[in-house]
Amino acid sequence: MSTKPQENKLKAAIIGCGRVSIKHIKALSKLSDRITLCALVDTNPDAPSHLLSGAKLKGKKLSEIKSTMKSYLNYQDMLSDIHPDIVAITVPSGMHYQVAKDCLLAGANILLEKPMTMSNTLSKELYELAESQGRKIALGHIYRYFPIVNLLHEDMAAGTFGKVGHGSVIVRWGHEDEYYKQAAWRGTWKSDGGALMNQTVHALDLMCYLMNTEAVSVNGMIANRFREMEAEDTALGVFTFGNGALCQVEGTTATFPNDHEASFFINAEKACIRIALRKGKPSYSINNAKGKNLAFKYLRKYIKRYGLSYLIAVAKNPHYGIYCDLYQAITEKKQPIADGRSGYLSVDMVLGFYKSVLLKTETNLPLQEEFNIEDMKSYPLHRSGKD
Ligand SMILES: NC(=O)c1ccc[n+]([C@@H]2O[C@H](COP(=O)([O-])OP(=O)(O)OC[C@H]3O[C@@H](n4cnc5c(N)ncnc54)[C@H](O)[C@@H]3O)[C@@H](O)[C@H]2O)c1
Questions:
Q1: Distance 211 CA to ligand 1 centre (A)
Q2: Which residue, 65, 242, 275, 346, shows the most beta carbons closer than 10 Å to its own?
Q3: Does the global pTM surpass 0.85?
Q4: Superfamily assignment of 143-332+343-364 in CATH?
């Protein structure tokens, strides 16, 4: 995550100029010493200019981007014209697989938004394709890039916190019905999934990353209580991890949109770790057995390693951290922090969860075969109080 300017400038393109692409262009506008944004692609001809105005870029940042960037309606035209080193894929989730595959085959490294794809087998296939092509996949798993998270991961791996007892993850990321009505793909089983696949998938990934482990089974329940959408707005379940720890999960979009919350708790032998984001404000506590909060020690270490300006930049926009990391992964030939393997394992966790709901039984992970998310259409999500 070095922030030093490099001679090796890479060419980047963004495919899909909707809501999340604003985070990408803002991150890229701070990285013009390393990455040149050469193309914006969207099937909607107005989307690139909406993106530029939505990102509120001004002055030198805006003129730099405008001077290097071309707009395209078709991503294949862009790939053959530009030959980008990095493509950010920010199209609807149901399209991730095809676009990502085409970009990898065209020789690009990709920053693929979460969830990696809507299928466990296709996600794994993308990971294997990137490996065989010698290309990098970075996932839009923003939580891995929150300040100090990677230091906690390192210390957990080194055994500093001792045995992990259990964990708990809460994602209360409320959206109104209007959000689901904005685009036809939102909230559908085929192209988006529900609160678990869209909003909770990268939080599940974070628990694995923090605990240095992978899920071995899951037992879940889902319902649709408030939102007008095809998939679930509420999911509750329990994962068992390879280290023996249980982890409870709550993922919902049925709460108020003005009170977003994502919180992570790990109960380990030598410390209780709490990381929370509420209404955009982060909080950390890493309490040892004597009740001492070690969070400041970690913050100091993080600033010493990466600098205060990097900390502020990733705290404001974790996508900046993903781009810095992907740049480094490409130029120094290593894996990004949120790599392709984390992408397919987190999709596998979500689909295993859905499978356990459908079959009403604990499901072993990783899944041994494809679970078709559209099978969830037969599940009765809308229960009356008498059920
Ligand atoms: N990591 C995060 O924090 C985060 C946050 C929000 C969304 N996401 C993910 O990002 C993805 C996009 O979400 P969004 O909310 O920005 O969606 P969106 O609907 O706002 O934007 C998608 C854009 O893709 C365009 N598009 C569709 N088909 C295309 C094609 N063939 N070629 C080029 N452009 C095409 C659409 O016209 C639209 O502008 C989803 O997978 C979502 O899960 C990630």
A1: 30
A2: 346
A3: yes
A4: Dihydrodipicolinate Reductase; domain 2 (3.30.360.10)
Query: In the prediction, which pLDDT does 60 show?
Result: 85
Which of 77, 113, 119 to probe ligand 1 with, by most ligand atoms within 8 A of CB?
A: 113
Which of the listed residues 14, 15, 17, 19 should we mutate to test ligand 1's pocket, taking the one with most ligand atoms within 8 A of CB? 19
Domain 10-141's class? alpha beta
Domain boundaries of the chain, sorted by first residue: 10-141, 143-332+343-364
Whether the CB-CB separation of 207 and 169 falls below 8 Å is answered with: yes
The pLDDT tens digits of the residues spanning 212-255 come to 999 999 999 999 999 999 999 999 999 999 999 999 999 999 99
Ligand 1 within 6 A of CB of 192: no
Q: Does the Cβ of 205 fall within 6 Å of ligand 1?
A: no
Nearest atom in ligand 1 to 93's CA: 41
Pocket test for ligand 1, best of 87, 91, 102 (most atoms within 8 A of CB): 91
Q: Report pLDDT digits (tens) over 347-369.
A: 999 999 999 999 999 999 999 99
Write out pLDDT tens, residues 56-115: 998 888 888 889 899 999 999 999 999 999 999 999 999 999 999 999 999 999 999 999
Q: What percent of the chain has pLDDT over 70?
A: 97
Measure 18 CA to ligand 1 centroid, in angstroms: 5
- Nearest residue to 376 via CA among 253, 222, 195: 222
Residue 113 Cα to ligand 1 middle (Å)? 8
pLDDT the model gives residue 7: 64
10-141 and 143-332+343-364 agree in CATH topology: no
Which residue has its alpha carbon closest to ligand 1 atom 18? 18
Q: Is the CB of 114 under 6 A from ligand 1?
A: yes
- Cα–ligand 1 centroid distance for 92 (angstroms): 4
* pLDDT exceeds cutoff 80 at 383: no
